[in-house]
Amino acid sequence: TERVGTEPSIFTRILRGEIPSEIVLQTDDVFVIRDIAPQAPIHLLVIPKADEYADVVELAAGDPKLLASMVEVARVAASQAGAADFRLIFNTGVGAGQTVFHVHAHVLATRFGGLAEA
Ligand code: 5GP
């Protein structure tokens, strides 16, 4: 997807501090925030700092090592939030509900023993 000349993504603006959102974890290449509209007790977004790939298909083709880094950061972030097990979701395309075309992974989980939490 050609993105040259477009506005910075909402995630780039968060990374720059232009839109407030706590960065809960970061590496050189990837950062993690809490989703503003959580769909599970734990709902994090794992995002490459560079806005180079619009979706996971482009990322997998263009930089598979960065995709692997996102998965590892998702594991650490879920663990830090209290979940050993988690769902990792990449909405890919408008028809699948993707709204931000700066690739990101949703990490969805419940906390340990968290049946009553929602
Ligand atoms: P998508 O539907 O593109 O896979 O997911 C985009 C996600 O970004 C949505 O779950 C939405 O709630 C989240 N989101 C959109 N704007 C903001 C924001 O300003 N801050 C945070 N923390 N999350 C956002």
From TrEMBL:
Active site: 104 (tele-amp-histidine intermediate)
Pfam families cross-referenced by the UniProt entry: HIT
Domain spans labelled HIT: 10-117
Domain of life according to the entry: Bacteria
Listed SUPFAM superfamilies: HIT-like
Gene3D superfamilies: HIT-like
GO molecular function, one term: catalytic activity
Location of the motif Histidine triad motif: 102-106
Listed name of the protein: Histidine triad (HIT) family protein
Lineage: Bacteria, Bacillati, Actinomycetota, Actinomycetes, Micrococcales
